[in-house]
Design brief:
Layout: H1 4-15, H2 22-29, E1 43-44, E2 63-67, E3 72-73, H3 75-87, E4 92-96, H4 98-105, H5 115-119, H6 127-141, E5 143-146, E6 151-152, E7 167-171, E8 177-184, H7 189-203, H8 213-216, H9 219-229, E9 242-245, E10 251-256, E11 267-268, E12 281-283, E13 289-291, H10 292-300, H11 305-311, H12 319-330
Parallel strand pairs: 2-4, 2-5, 7-10
Antiparallel strand pairs: 1-3, 5-8, 6-11, 7-8, 9-10, 12-13
Helix pairs in contact: 4-6, 6-7, 7-9
């Protein structure tokens, strides 16, 4: 199922998808027709496909993107996905596992000529990789992205995302756009600017083994791009709730993630508040009481990025140092390119053979 010929064939399929509808593209990318054999305690997940309404006038397609390590999921995660299906009944739902995430990231994006160069400095395959992937998946396909541990609140409904906007986010507690839930039309300028900002941040890292995730690929990077995108907005507070007009006339809507009066969240962020908290006590192995988070992590092998970083004790080096070592080892000319494909900086000479 995971042999080289199968992967090669899928790569060839992906190359020929220019004229294929987006749902079929995503089905191929996420291997939606693959027969899954899961361990007894896990459930194979099949993508939910709802044909797009071609007569509906809206910018953001009704597609929900979720990601987790494997498409063999524990029952707790199945419950979370079923909740999304209940609250967004007209949405297709695609579950991207690690293989699908890597397949997208390894594609060639002409809009981001320095991306593959920068990826050499992304050493953590957890949070940093997902930060990059979620921007790319929305830039290429559009739709809605949510963290897998978000629980859809009772008042969440499809109409929360207006039909007449090209982008939608909540505001986090620092009033930044919500990286944990966002929706955009394909090729949205904010997703483009965010990816450019992330690439710049990664290439500028002073220590690739201990990167400041929030500021490199996380919500601060998204917020920096948002401020550039909103530079033409006439609103006094670009982070306030409501409609905002950004670059090239793209309208966005920023929503409060909880009702100001009742405190009933539209999205239960990260499963830490309200119903279905990841910190709820549930039954674990041998009838022991453990948190839902521990039960999910035990079944899926998911490791939080902070633990992932603590395991790495290597001496820090900058991204520039790492790239220089890679160049010398490979004996290749690796360059940075500007948006027109011209070599501009970062040139290293080929080693003598």
């Amino acid at each position: 199922m995971n042999n080289t010929s199968t992967k090669t064939g899928r790569k060839e399929q992906v190359k020929d998808l220019a004229n294929v509808d987006v749902l079929t593209q995503l089905q191929i990318l996420t291997r939606g027709n693959e027969t899954l054999k899961c361990l007894e305690q896990l459930i194979p997940y099949k993508n939910k496909i709802v044909p797009l309404n071609q007569t509906e006038q809206r910018f953001i397609p009704k597609i929900l993107h979720l990601s987790i390590k494997s498409k063999c999921i524990p029952r707790d995660i199945e419950e979370y996905i079923d909740r999304w299906s209940e609250k967004l009944p007209n949405y297709s739902i695609f579950l991207h596992d690690d293989e699908a995430v890597q397949a997208l990231i390894q594609e060639s994006f002409n809009d981001f000529p320095n991306m593959k160069r920068a990826l050499n400095c992304v050493l953590f395959k957890g949070a940093m990789t997902i930060d990059i992937w979620r921007i790319l998946v929305l830039f290429k396909y559009g739709g809605v992205y949510s963290d897998i541990d978000n629980w859809a609140g009772n008042d969440l409904r499809e109409e929360v995302i207006p039909y007449n906007v090209t982008g939608f986010t909540f505001s986090d507690i620092w009033k930044r756009p919500s990286q944990w839930f966002m929706a955009f039309e394909p090729r949205h300028p904010l997703m483009y600017l965010t990816m450019k900002q992330i690439i710049h941040n990664v290439l500028s890292l002073n220590d690739v083994h201990h990167p400041p995730l929030v500021f490199t690929t996380g919500p601060a990077a998204l917020n920096d791009a948002y401020l550039v995108f909103m530079s033409t907005d006439v609103a006094k507070d670009k982070h306030e709730r409501g409609y905002h007009k950004g670059t090239f006339g793209h309208w966005m809507f920023k929503e409060s993630w909880s009702k100001a009066q009742e405190g009933d969240p539209l999205i239960n962020i990260g499963g830490w508040q309200g119903n279905h908290s990841w910190e709820d006590l549930v039954e674990g192995p041998n009838s022991t009481n453990i948190t839902r988070r521990e039960r999910i992590q035990g079944a899926t092998g998911i490791m939080h990025h902070r633990k992932e970083r603590r395991k790495n004790r290597k001496q820090g080096k900058s991204c520039a140092q790492l790239l220089k070592e890679i160049d010398e080892k490979n004996g290749q000319d690796l360059h940075f390119y500007d948006k027109n494909g011209n070599k501009r900086f970062g040139v290293t000479k080929r080693l003598a053979s």
